[in-house]
Structures are given as structure tokens and as C-alpha cells.
Amino acid sequence: MSSSTSISSISNPAWSNPRTQFLSSSKDVFGSNSSSVSFRKRPNSIVSALQTPSIIQIPKQSPPNTSTGSIELMKLKELIESPSSSSPAVQQNLNVFQKLAAMALDAIEDGMKAREKLHPLPKTADPNVQIAGNFSPVPEQPVRHGLPVVGKVPECIEGVYLRNGANPLFEPTSGHHLFDGDGMIYAVKFDNGSVSYACRFTETQRLVQERAIGKPVFPKAIGELHGHSGIAKLLLFYARGMCGLLDHSQGLGVANAGLVYFNNRLLAMSEDDLPYHVRVTPSGDLKTAGRYNFGDQLDSTMIAHPKLDPVSGELFALSYDVVKKPYLKYFRFSPDGRKSEDVAIDLGKPTMVHDFAITENFVVVPDHQVVFEMSEMIRGGSPVVYDKEKVPDCFCFHLWNAWEEPESDEVVVIGSCMTPADSIFNECNEELKSVLSEIRLNLKTGKSTRRQIISPENDVNLEAGMVNKNLLGRKSKFAYLAIAEPWPKVSGFAKVDLSTGETKKFIYGEEKYGGEPLFLPRDANSAAEDDGYILAFVHDEKTWKSELQIVNAMTMELEATVKLPSRVPYGFHGTFINAGDLETQA
Ligand SMILES: [Fe+2]
After folding, report:
1. Chief location of this protein (predicted)?
2. What is the value of pTM for the model shown?
3. Is 100 within the bounds of a domain?
4. What DSSP state is assigned to residue 261?
5. Ligand 1 center to 517 CA (angstroms)
6. Is position 95 within any domain?
7. How many domains does the chain have?
8. How close is the Cα of 577 to the center of ligand 1, in Å?
């Protein structure tokens, strides 16, 4: 079933490439009872993800009482109790006024927290739910070399696999959502047959300052900013800033969601801030270079899912603002890092835009149902609101790919449609579903259609994954997606034929769970799209040990398992930097 839509475009403001066009429609589309989808020019919502909404009712569980787990917990305690001496000491040299202000504000905060304890937290803000089991944080792991490998690492894998995740430095003292955790990068480096592992915090401004102060003082976007207590926490935060107890002008972001290697720089991103530039050291360790504004070219936040065009080398990105217009902006960077002008996208309401898609000539921006209503906080609720005026059942947390089909004048978009749309933000008893879907936008008629790619009897929840990155924006046959079952855990990944729906599954093993599968092409010039390997961090919940599994994407057979020296929590998105690219790091 289709619905009427119109498509319009915006002329390119900066460069001659015609890429700067937007798909938009004049009316809502994503129909619950139809297979249509649409992207509107003046819409209001989008949903998304990474650092905001979350996921989920994480089953409460305790790690087995193994020696490894105990050691890690002890290390974490040490880490928390022994802040790094290298961090700037924000509270050093406080004058009398500042000391008094700090005492007063601490007392107010203590009173607020005491009152909060009288009311149970919702599951979406309860740290006992959100960071239970292997969602719980780990301490940093300095680089360890010569890791044991079962099987043989394919010779083509030379470089470093990196994955981002949320790893709170401090034990939460009030509401906390999985997405609120401090960014940590987990890195496995392959170097002439030797494999190393390290994990490090991304040294964000909030992490550095909180470590120096000795407790969490930055508001948590999802877990804390609800109702009147959320307003109070914001006021407390800015009061500390005005008193010189912290610097609130250098960003609030956690850099925990995505990673991209662009213009010789590894960037760690969350959609609430600028990216952070992180270097991979020759030994395989990680070192944060700093908050990165592309050489003073970017003065706004950037989402964690920028798109790197495999042919042009350009990077495409969005920025959204929850308070002031324009609520959404689009921009891009040339391969050598020159930023285009911003293109303001007119949205009626501030909307969370976690992900989008590109084709050879278009940028596809989804219009979803989750919007920000800051006034809801005054009424005691969450500012993240499900806009019921919009057509339901079309919340694509992520878009896996898109391409043009000139023969039918269509743009094809591949994504996972998640229902209920607001289940990641608000407590919900309805079972979550994430349905791999194909959305077709007709450029001539303005109509759109949507279909479920996998037959309903065989369908599974698919979230987090990718296509062959060399085909981003081009027609791709396969997608490699996490089997998000039992939700929110990931028991394996699926290789899905996007045209037929045929699905081949790889299950990590009994009581073994992972996250996003990364597809690494064996050779960019290979004729076979699936000629490559899947890399995935996997955690064994029986032995409480973690490993990296390397699976042949053509045969779907396990090629090698790297045994890791410390636990890797379930996390978010990753990337791979080839050895050659590492040599040209800035
Ligand atoms: Fe994401």
C-alpha cells in the first residue's frame, strides 16, 4: 500500500557536487497499516538513539563470583577512589566564596538525592537495571600484547578494530540510563601475527572535570533530566558553573556512541557534543587528543552516525538542537576536511535524529515520532516525548543503507523499524520489535512503500550492524545485523539477503552474547560483496570471560577467537582502521 508523498530538494550551498539534496514529503507517511514511509520537509520528529534513548529493560543479573570478576570490581573501585592526578583540578585554589558555595550546593544536592530515594526509579533510569551484568563498567586496560588466539587470524586483517561504549567512571548516585555512561573505546590491534588489546576512557571535558572533582556533577541526559528534579539538577549544574566550580562551556558530551576514521583522525562521537579526536598509539594503546571542531569549522554538535562516501571520500553529517532553531542542520566535509555551509532543515519541533542515510546523489533524513518537549519537565515528565500526531510504527533507530534505482525512479532505504517508538525512553510493557524493512521512495510520484524484508514467520529483532562499507550509498545485497534477542542482549548476528529475505544466522554460543557485528571487507576490489570477515566482541556469561570472534562472512564459519585479558562490556558502534591508514594518523 502506498501513500502520496512529494519529494523536494535543496540546492547545494557549498560545492558543485549535487549531493546536497533532501528527500522530503508533504504529508506524513509511515503508516501503521501501510507499507509506506516518508521523509518530510517540515516534520518534527525523529528518533534515535545512541546517546539518548535507550534501550531497555536490561535484565537484572549479577556476574558469577569468579576471581576475574572480583578482580575487575576491585580495580574499578580503585579507579573510582583514585582519580588521575593528571586531570586538571577544578576545585583547587578555591577562594572562600567558592568553598562556601560548593558546600551549600553539595548540601542542596544531598537533600535532593535523599528525597529521590523515597520514590522508585523507572527501569529506564534505574542503574540497577541499566548497567547490570555485562552492561556494567570496567576499569581501563593498558595495552596487553601477545594475546592467545584459537584458530588463525586471516592474513588480510592488519590494523585495529575499535568499538565504542558507555562505561560510567563513577557509580551512579541517582538516575542513570545505559546511554549516559562515559565513553570508553575497546581496541584490538593486529600487527604481523601478534594481537594486542587495550581499553581507555575518551577524555571528555565532563570526564576530566568529574574525575578532578571526585563525583558526578554533569547532568545525565536520559537518566536524570526528568520533571522537577531534572530542572533542579540543571540549575545546580549551572550554579556550580557560575561559581567557578566547574566549566560548563566546553561541552557536556560523553562521546560514547560511534566511531569514524576520517581525514587521518579517529573520532569518538555522541550526538550531544562535538566529536573527540583519539589517537591509536604505535603500541596499540589509545590517547585522547581532545575535543575536535574540525579546525574551528564546526560550532555545533554532530550526530554519531556521519556517513563516509566510499567513492568521493566526503563525510556527511547532521546536527540537531533541542532548544533553538534551526532544530536540524546538515553539512558535509571534503575528503581533506573542509566543511560546507550548514543547511538548515525546517522542523516544527526539536527532534532526535540519531541516524540517516546517503545515496550517490541524495541525503535521506528520516522523520520520526520522538520529539523534545522541554515544557514537559515543568509538568513533571520527561522532555523526550512520543508525538502521537505522527503516523506510528515507523521509528527507525538506524538506517543501514540506501541507494538509487533510476529504472523505477526510486530511492531505496534499508532500516530497522522499532516499536513501540518510545520504548527506549519510557517504561513500556509492550514487547519491543525491531523489523528489518525496505522503504521505497518514488521520486516522480512522491509515493512511498514499505515492506518487511524477512518473512514474518522467520523474523527476528535485528539491530546494530552494517553493509559492506564500500557499498554505502550503493545497492547492496547483504546486511550483517545483530540478533537482538533476548532483548536487549545480542545472541549472534544475521547475514540477510536484502532482496530475498534469506537469512543465515551465526550464534555466538551458549550463554555468549555480543553486540554490533563489524563487516571487514577482505579486499576493496573483490568481486564478491560478502568477501570479508565479521568481527564481534563476545562475552561468556558462564565463565565471565570476553573474546573477539572472527567469522568468515562467505561461509559463516568461525575462523579465529582472540582471548581478551579483561571483560568487554556490551556496547555500541565500532570501526576498523587498516594498518596503512594508521601510518598516516594526524
Ligand atoms: Fe547508533
Report:
1. plastid
2. 0.84
3. yes
4. E
5. 13
6. yes
7. 1
8. 19
